[in-house]
Design brief:
- This protein has eight helices and six strands; from the N terminus they run ααββααααββαββα.
- It is mostly helical.
- The chain has a single domain, classed as Jann2411-like domain (Jann2411-like fold).
- The strands form three sheets. A two-stranded antiparallel ribbon has the order 1-2.
- The N and C termini lie far apart (56 Å).
Length: 215
């Protein structure tokens, strides 16, 4: 039997694609082929995947992730995975509405509000030294916090910061209709069109070429 700790600490699983430029967008993109016709591809198949995502995106450090993995029960892991997927779909509904210029669904906003408040309840303000040795105030997860929902709260906290920041205006969706992965357009002229040029960009160019030269 593979435990959550095994899944969270093993290096066998493929790394999450992080072309979105922000953990919240990469999290939405963890459900691939969302708009395709061949079936969706789930990137969060287990609680270990959820925990590994927060490690790869630096939302949780290795020590805290390992603490969660070692203490989580199978039942709690199932609930947390379900909550993580629900958060992801509420984010997807809201962010795709924003990028398409539509009002976000009220139900999605209510769910996001629920997770944002839950995340805040598990953070505390601490006085701690910075890299230069100077003391500073910083928000952190509670030291005794090892609950299964911690990766969900960490993602929710990052998503809230993005959605309420000016950076959200740079959010785009890949123009490949079967992809539509979300990303932050940080290009100099703000003209980025594809999640990855070598994948969707080249594919769409090839399709247009075929259309022009068919018949």
């Amino acid at each position: 039997m593979v435990t959550a700790a095994d899944q969270a600490t093993s290096g066998k699983a493929a790394a999450f694609d992080r072309c979105g430029g922000h953990p919240a967008l990469d999290f939405v993109n963890s459900l691939d082929n969302r708009f395709g016709g061949r079936g969706r591809v789930e990137g969060l198949e287990s609680f270990g995947d959820l925990l590994r995502f927060t490690r790869e995106t630096a939302l949780l450090d290795a020590q805290r992730a390992l603490q969660v993995a070692r203490t989580v029960t199978p039942e709690a892991a199932v609930r947390a995975l379900r909550a993580g997927r629900a958060l992801r779909e509420a984010l997807a509904e809201t962010l795709y509405a924003v990028v398409d210029g539509r009002p976000p669904p009220a139900a999605g906003l209510e769910m996001l509000e629920h997770y944002f408040h839950a995340a805040d309840r598990h953070r505390e303000l601490r006085w701690q030294p910075d890299i230069a040795g100077r003391a500073a105030l910083a928000w952190s997860w509670r030291l005794d916090e090892g609950k299964a929902e911690l990766p969900v709260w960490a993602i929710a906290h990052a998503a809230r910061d993005l959605m309420l920041s000016p950076e959200i205006k740079r959010m785009r969706a890949c123009e490949a209709e079967t992809c539509r992965w979300l990303f932050l357009d940080t290009s100099r002229n703000h003209t980025r069109r594809w999640c990855k040029m070598r994948v969707c960009g080249n594919r769409m160019k090839a399709r247009r070429y075929q259309v022009r030269h068919s018949g």
